[in-house]
Amino acid sequence: MTASTPLVADPQAQRTGSSDRPAVDVAVGVLVRPDGAFLLTSRPQGKPYTGYWEFPGGKVEAGETIEQALRRELIEEIGIHIGHALAWRVEMVDYPHALVRLHFCKVLEWSGELEMRESQSFAWQQLPVAVEPVLPGTIPVLDWFAAERNHSGATISGATSADSAAVIG
Ligand SMILES: Nc1nc2c([nH]c(=O)n2[C@H]2C[C@H](O)[C@@H](COP(=O)(O)OP(=O)(O)OP(=O)(O)O)O2)c(=O)[nH]1
């Protein structure tokens, strides 16, 4: 688990890193193209944070490994079959709607054409990303990319941070 600094906190969100709620495991796929561009998708209608940009993925179901969940979610959501998923970082985020444990996995190989099966939008991005708003629990990933890529400066073009969750270490 990473020791992330809390982002701008929602008064309703836990800032301490402790929570009475059980955490929901989420498998998240960070697809990276050979040119370094990474795939962001927008959250569909009917979900918390509709329209916010995130990496594709979803909740792990009972009996699934993270990789199995990721494989299933990426077929269901964006119509691709992934190769190996490389475990990258784990992050807890305390949202008003749920406490989530995000398992970010890098995916460098996949097959199939992208098909947004939940009517999302998608965008291949480099730093700084040009799409907004970015989901609070997704913003730290941009910082990890920045560190890996020696990118200095903003990770989001023209960003003003307006979060409503606490990222906890
Ligand atoms: N997929 C994804 N979820 C993220 C990211 N960052 C982040 O905080 N989250 C949070 C938002 C949600 O609280 C949770 C994912 O839950 P979800 O509701 O989208 O999952 P799901 O697709 O399985 O949805 P459903 O079964 O409820 O329809 O993880 C991210 O980059 N990608």
From TrEMBL:
Give the UniProt keywords, A-Z: DNA damage, DNA repair, DNA replication, Hydrolase, Magnesium, Metal-binding, Mutator protein
Q: Does the keyword Electron transport apply?
A: no
Which InterPro entries does this UniProt record tie to the protein?
Answer: MutT-like, Nudix_hydrolase, NUDIX_hydrolase-like_dom_sf, NUDIX_hydrolase_CS, NUDIX_hydrolase_dom
Q: Which domain of life is it from?
A: Bacteria
* Residues annotated as domain Nudix hydrolase: 22-147
Entries under CDD domains matching the protein: NUDIX_MutT_NudA_like
Q: Does the keyword Hydrolase apply?
A: yes
* A UniProt-annotated Pfam family: NUDIX
Please state the Enzyme Commission number of this protein.
Answer: 3.6.1.55
Give the catalytic activity.
8-oxo-dGTP + H2O = 8-oxo-dGMP + diphosphate + H(+); 8-oxo-GTP + H2O = 8-oxo-GMP + diphosphate + H(+)
Q: Where is this region: Disordered?
A: 1-21
Cofactor(s) demanded: Mg(2+)
For this chain, the family text in UniProt reads: Belongs to the Nudix hydrolase family.
Tell me what this protein is called. Answer: 8-oxo-dGTP diphosphatase
Q: Which organism is it from?
A: Rhodoferax potami
